[in-house]
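Working notes for the structural subgroup meeting. M.R. asked for a predicted model of this chain before we commit to crystallization trials. I am recording the input and output together here so anyone reviewing the notebook later can reproduce the run.

Input as submitted:
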Amino acid sequence: MRSVPILIVGGGAAGMMAAAAVSGCGKKALIIEKMNQLGKKILATGNGRCNYTNLRQKPEFYHVDETDGVWEILKRFDEKQAISFFKDAGVYPRERDGYVYPMSLQAVSLRNCLQRKIDKKWVHLEEEVLEITQNMSELGKCTGFVVKTDKDRYLAKKVIITAGGMASKCHGSDGACFDILKRLGHTIIKPVPALTWLKIEEKYTKLWAGVRANGKIKAYDENKNELAEDSGELQLVSTGISGIPVFQISRYISRQLEKTKRAYIEADFLTEFSKDELLGEILRRRQDEQELEVSYILEGIMNNKLVDAILSRAGINKNSKLKDLKTEQCEQICSLIKKFEAEVKDTAGFDNAQVTCGGVSRGEVNFKDMSSKICKGLYLAGEIVDVDGICGGYNLQWAWSSGYIAGISAAGGKQQ
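Returned structure, recorded in token form:
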């Protein structure tokens, strides 16, 4: 059984940052990663461009309570320090509206930068951790951990778990470490998909596939209480609705579906018009262009495919004449555009989610040093903890911040 001072479970963003922090303290940490390369999920971030942090940082951009200390970790190793860390290693930043990317616009630049800070001899790839148990002395004190993998066993004085959540299993996040942490006494807030798209799966959704519309979307529970809302470009797909605003509210839908199996959305597909303005335009066209087909009702204002979907939902024949359109039908069209309501059948699942909502209970993490309150010598960082942020580089910033603090804490070093 090989003895190591610090063992890191998971070689993603948080794990690599933790290892780099340990190395910066003049010590070594063994990384065990079950995939065939480190930072595989980093490479897929931002369609390969990697929006790795954001200059606009506020506590409300992270779905946490102000009292649990998460923001303190984010301030201790903040976006400026993250940018400086990567710049010192040769990755210069490119900023756009607060979003920060590598100047190369290549995620591989960040991954390679982190790899250069880690001794390859202290990296074990394609090795999976199966069990972690406390190594107890004769006096009943924990002297470290026995880490069992599918290839070996290790005795580690300290362990940092950065194995991620359950989003994007193809990149290594399958939630296996949640069960390991449960057996160590930790409470796991049930993981659900976040930053993903939503399935509606009705006949009309096939008509709007491929349409993009600037709009607003809201999430509701089974009692029609509003949970969240966001605005921006909505992307309509054949089985539902996507786009960044949808991603932002998806965690609330996911949690609601997990609780009650019922969740709803309400969308405004034409925010440029008030309801009265839109109805006035519809009635004007009915009056002025009586012989045209109903499908013309919003031509030049709204995508024809979306109009067809709205008419299908309303049960109105798009080939009928505008003159035959009743006033209540005009009002119905207007209502469906400005207040489109639908029940969400499901989310797109973990395979299509960017992050996980849920994980190790924040109440069991010491946010001064990212240590476990349950097991002395155990540290947690990244997506394994019940912390998730909005789109825009915030989840990676959490990985850098928590990974860095966990690393220097485990190594007994001081923040530089």
